[in-house]
Design goal:
It is a single chain. The protein is mostly helical and about 200 residues long. It is about 60% helix and about 0% strand.
């Protein structure tokens, strides 16, 4: 009995399309890369906030001299706020400088935002708190001014987009991207009943 091949007859077995597989693989690779980029950005920004808290608390000799940390009786806000020399809130910041409530609020903000970003939890709340801090610091430095109140050059290099604006945008972007799921506890955090009922805690 002869067996004839029929070139027009298709077998039941279908091989996957190489084109489709390649496109799917590319999309998955791009998605994974995006997740890693945002996770890296989240961790680096978190370290910026957390390091600022640690240095101001213990006086490691970087921005805060040794022996002048918060634990040594120093004020985390005195140096910065008392040095404000321009802007619409200059006198207000001078009044706030060194006040206990200002020190505690500033330090808790640095710690809370830093830990949230490092852990990858509560990113929406961290974005709001961190962006508010950056906005206040932007106003304190007041980049639009070319001159300080005493007439000296302000040394501002850009009337709007300084590093405070960049940090604020990064915080919002990290929260919007849900960057806590990669290299963080974001997925476990989102599954907690209290968090799942209150999406602003994501």
């Amino acid at each position: 009995m002869a067996v004839h091949e029929h070139p027009h007859r298709r077998l039941g077995l279908r091989l996957p399309s190489l084109h489709r597989t390649s496109a799917d693989s590319t999309a998955e690779a791009v998605t994974a890369m995006r997740a890693y980029v945002f996770a890296s950005l989240r961790l680096l920004t978190g370290f910026v906030f957390l390091w600022a808290f640690l240095d101001k608390t213990f006086g490691f000799g970087y921005a805060t001299p040794s022996g002048r940390g918060w634990v040594d009786g120093g004020s985390p806000t005195m140096g910065f706020l008392s040095g404000v020399a321009v802007g619409p809130m200059e006198s207000t910041f001078h009044e706030w400088a060194g006040d206990g409530w200002a020190d505690w609020l500033f330090m808790l903000g640095l710690l809370g935002v830093g830990l949230a970003l490092i852990a990858g939890v509560g990113l929406r709340l961290a974005a709001v708190a961190g962006a508010a801090m950056m906005a206040l610091m932007w106003v304190a430095e007041w980049p639009p001014a070319k001159h300080l109140s005493d007439g000296a050059a302000s040394m501002s290099t850009n009337p709007f987009a300084d590093y405070h604006v960049v940090y604020a945008v990064v915080l919002v972007a990290v929260a919007a991207a849900g960057a806590g799921a990669t290299w963080g506890l974001g997925k476990a955090w989102a599954r907690l009943p209290f968090v799942s009922r209150n999406h602003w805690l994501l």
